[in-house]
Design goal:
Shape: globular
Number of helices: 7
Low-confidence stretches: 1-42
Pfam families: DUF4348 (PF14254)
Number of domains: 1
Order of helices and strands: HHHHEEEEHHEEHEEEE
Strand order of the largest sheet: 1-8-9-10-5-6
Largest sheet: 6 strands, mixed
Number of strands: 10
Mean pLDDT: 78
Length: 243
């Protein structure tokens, strides 16, 4: 009987000890979760900030920069972005805490460099200046783009036919086709986009360029991929995932 009582008492203390261990483990787990949640908090990406910046007068007014045309983007259905590689600027990762973005205005023949800096985990606008077309890091591609847009014969000569074309069907499934040269219709890309945005530190050595139309609350999503072959640029793929 004495042994039975001792066993019960020992079991009771063991349970309390296990409960304390469990509580301690749970407290530690909560602390670890809190630490992890702090570490994993993402600050606003640069492009998310930039889109808010160009469409909100409040953000622009706070910087008192006379070079900003408040109606420049708000009157458009989409904004066209240029990037090297096959990624869009919205897919770029590991951007530095200082970013310069160049805006080409084809209608006004005006080029501006906007400067941004991340301070205390928040992106801020730090000024802008005009930049000569001769000093553009993408001058050769821009020159090509203007000729490609205006000259219908040159355009056909600088498309790799049959051209890969991707779009969405009525069920939002991706479908593809190949466009033959005789079925291609000339279009003036520069006139269509009116302006083009790209990072000042774009990788000029990359053989790919893409122009990406991003709609303003209307589902427009279009991408043109160009490739440099023997120092000449060619359109190699078109994609339209607009909804």
């Amino acid at each position: 009987m004495k042994y039975l009582i001792l066993i019960l008492i020992f079991g009771l203390f063991s349970c309390k000890s296990d409960d304390r261990k469990l509580e301690g483990f749970q407290e530690k787990a909560v602390e670890m979760n809190q630490e992890n949640s702090t570490v994993s908090i993402d600050t606003t990406s640069f492009m998310e900030f930039f889109e808010s910046f160009i469409f909100e007068k409040r953000l622009q007014n706070s910087n008192k920069d006379n070079s900003i045309d408040y109606n420049f983007f708000s009157s458009k259905d989409y904004v066209a972005y240029l990037n090297s590689d096959t990624l869009s600027v919205f897919e770029e990762k590991n951007l530095s805490d200082k970013q310069d973005l160049i805006i080409l205005d084809f209608k006004k023949v005006k080029n501006l460099k906007y400067k941004f800096e991340k301070i205390n985990q928040k992106w801020t606008f730090s000024g802008s200046n005009t930049i000569s077309i001769n000093n553009l890091p993408e001058k050769k591609f821009v020159d090509f783009l203007m000729k490609f847009s205006k000259d219908s014969i040159y355009q056909k000569e600088h498309i790799l036919f049959p051209l890969e074309d991707y779009s969405l069907d009525d069920d939002y499934q991706t479908i593809s086709q190949k466009i033959e040269k005789e079925k291609w219709n000339h279009f003036n890309l520069v006139e269509e986009i009116e302006s083009l945005l790209f990072f000042a530190n774009i990788d000029s050595n990359n053989v790919f360029r893409n122009i990406y139309y991003r709609g303003i609350g209307n589902g427009i999503l279009i991408k043109f991929t160009f490739k440099r072959v023997n120092n000449d640029w060619f359109l190699v793929k078109t994609e339209d995932y607009s909804t």
